[in-house]
UniProtKB/TrEMBL annotation, chain A:
Species lineage: Bacteria, Bacillati, Actinomycetota, Actinomycetes, Kitasatosporales
Domain of life of the native organism: Bacteria
Protein name: Roadblock/LAMTOR2 domain-containing protein
Automatic annotation (TrEMBL), chain B:
Origin superkingdom: Bacteria
Region of interest called Disordered, as start-end residue ranges on this chain: 231-261
Pro residues compositional bias, start-end: 241-253
Protein name: Transcriptional regulator
Amino acid sequence: MPGIDQVLSQAMGIPGVLGAGLIDWTSGLTLGTAGQAPHGDHDAAAADTADVVQAVTRNASFDTAGAGGPALEDLIITAAGSYHLIRFVHTAFDSQTYLYLWLDRAQANLAVARLRLRDLAAELVAS
Amino acid sequence: MGLPISPPPPAPAGLLDRFAAERVTGALSGPHGCFYFLDGAVYCIESTAAPGLGSRLTAAGKLPPQGWEHAAEAAGERRTGGRFLVEEGWLTQGELEICHLAALLDAAFFALELPPEAASFTPGTAHWLGVIRPVSITALQQATARRRALLDRLQPWAAADTSPVIPAGTPVPAATTRRQRRLLDRADGRHTPYELARLLGESAFATLLDIRLLAAAGLVLVPPPPAPLPRRRPGACLDAPPAPATAPHPAPAPQRSVPDIFDTTDPNIALLVRLRTALEEEL
């Protein structure tokens, strides 16, 4: 049964991935990391991506799902040379976490990475 | 030419930093919570202000009724309570780790306020859940500082933290989040944000933040601050009845108006009047 480390280790098998992490967006706390981070700093990447996620979660414009189903699925930042992929982890209990992937744009297939990360997020909490 | 002097190691900022540096194992109890250390890292925090792992999982329906107590009895002595929850099939390892860290982080927000003189350490004491995923004190302090900054932006609505949450009764605009709407639904004018967090098994920090946001949006009533004690004018109680309102003087300069009756030559009375005036100035 996978824990955080096993899921992050599987995330490292996604084509083009440079690094991965699980982060709490209300605080930027890293719950786990694998591989590399931009500028070699996983904690900075966690704090910076948490800022982005906070901006999205506090604005109701992005919450258009109504009462049913999880509101937010993923965020994609496309930059020169890399993709930053953020996937919300939806839990039955109260938590505010997301999986973060840093991908090499030349190596990665964004559509594949997105689907693989979706499955990993589900696996992390499926019971 | 002197030998190069290496800079001294940075002084530990506090008790917790010292515990981390000394790689202690045991339980540190303070006024707002209890930290469990293993080799200087924190693996569990309990705070009365924040719902713990058991409340969160039970409120979410992840644990059967009495499942938490059952785990404590069945695996508490071996300090493997966390593993027991997973082995019973109630949750995945990932869920255990995420929920445990969420609870730990939430408790840290309140427990980190730790005056050294009010803390007591018991070496070797372990928590019955066992070590699930330890976190460094530095990471916890940084995470808590970021959460603190979010809450401090809404400082003018801090009075809403500790008073019963009273919905304003106005129509709830669409621009509220799901979590905020849930809080408004549960708010009954009797429970404080801390109590709502406990009832819902949700983060106490996130609840405080949402209630402050709702107060700022006018959707939750904030109790008025206690009225300050009136600043007394020296000799005020000796004044004649207030002047008729027909001649309002805009803020007259403070003056000492003592009726003639106290213009006495008796040194004792003069002393008493001076004392009384001085005391009133202190009020």
